[in-house]
Amino acid sequence: MLVRHVLSGVILGGLAAPLLAAAPLPAPPPGVTGTRVFARADAEPSAIPSAAPSPAAEEPAPPRPASASTPSPEIAARARAELEANRTGKIDRTHYTADMAERMTDVTLAEVSTSLKALGAVKSFTQVRKITQGALTLYVFRVEFEKPPIVEEAIAWNAAGKVDFLQFRTTQQQ
Fold it and tell me: Residue 37: which residues within 8 A CB-CB, separation 6 or more?
């Protein structure tokens, strides 16, 4: 139960707003139609203008591929290293922005570490999404452990290469 609670809610002491809307999205401003792709919690709702409906739009879309385009080996290695550091409870706070390092208390790190260790060894680590909004590029990796649940790691780095966003959450996808 602790694993689901820690991993499904706010991880690392409220570091990140729930990824891609655990809460319903606000309605777009009047006169704007479209879908909000991604936004930080403090950002104004934005919309992608939609084109007029076409006959082709009524057909079901083809299924999305199981994984995103192949990440650079450096991105995947850096994301995996942060996962492993959090699993062991031995992070290098110099890898994080000042705000992130401040929010990562020793108690929170210990809880995350305990929860991730309880899932066993990592069986697979695959990039499933890359989301870009303005200057922010968020990488989402699907992590399968020996024991369920499947976990998604969402991570972003700032221009200086420091972790600016990090979240682990469970997913219902099997």
Answer: 48, 131, 133
Q: What residues contact residue 10 under an 8 Å CB cut-off, 6+ apart?
A: 16, 18
CATH code linked to domain 2-18+65-171: 3.10.450.590
In the prediction, which pLDDT does 78 show?
97
**Which three-class secondary structure string do you get for 83-144?**
HHHHHHCCCCHHHECHHHHHHCCHHHHHHHHHHHHHCCCEEEEEEEEEEEECCEEEEEEEEE
The whole model's pTM is what?
A: 0.62
Domain ranges of the chain: 2-18+65-171
